[in-house]
């Protein structure tokens, strides 16, 4: 089942997608310009976020934001069912007040960490029931149902934010060097991130670095850095920074390289992205 609300002019997005896979699938690492809640209803697997792998059991919830590269991977002997909700803050702006901002609460963590709220907490606070209720409302698709979707989802969002501390103690698997390199990339995005500089920083050979990095993330080091730089540029442009200044701040040394990279990753030109994301 697929249901969507989108208004490009006001940056509003809500996408509800419930699906049971009928055959094993492979999903590449990717990122979005929005937030996601992912809840597994049946099956098992792992969910990788910025190189860190979380074990997935039924009713676990994974939260990712627009800066995190991620992918689910299901165990091959099972046909899993999951609900994925993609959304922007503009879909429920009324939850953000001077006193409380659930998006700020969910954002108080290092990228790729504290992404999973375990099943026992998810079930205790009624998230699965909320998601199933939203699914029934999506089938109706009436003016009243569309309003109720926003209200039920807003309540669910607040409950998740109120219980996000439960994600802090969740274990995840990571290759220690790869995890440290990813943290370094995120915090030094404007600096020299050539292979040699990173190899020298972490005392690792280029061949070994490439092998373990691709094994852990699904990307070559160069492609990962390029994608992270483009994500950073998009965030800056959305905040009002010009494409040229954003490219420099993200570590691109010349505009031609930035232009080609931006178009390759996003499928659009910097000018088009700027016009779509600024008033």
Task: Describe the fold and architecture.
The chain is an alpha+beta fold and 279 residues long. 44% of the residues lie in helices and 18% in strands. It has helices at residues 102-106, 119-124, 127-140, 143-162, 176-187, 195-202, 206-217, 221-238, 243-249, 255-266, 270-277; strands spanning 2-7, 12-20, 35-42, 45-49, 52-56, 61-64, 70-74, 81-87, 116-117. Strands 1-2-8-3-6-9 form a 6-stranded antiparallel β-sheet. It has a 3-stranded antiparallel β-sheet with strand order 5-4-7, with no helix packed on it. Helix 3 (127-140) packs antiparallel against helix 4 (143-162) and helix 8 (221-238) crosses helix 9 (243-249). The longest helix is centred in the middle third of the chain and has 20 residues, at 143-162. The model has no long low-confidence stretch (mean pLDDT 88).
Salient structural properties:
single chain, 279 residues, alpha+beta, six-stranded antiparallel beta sheet
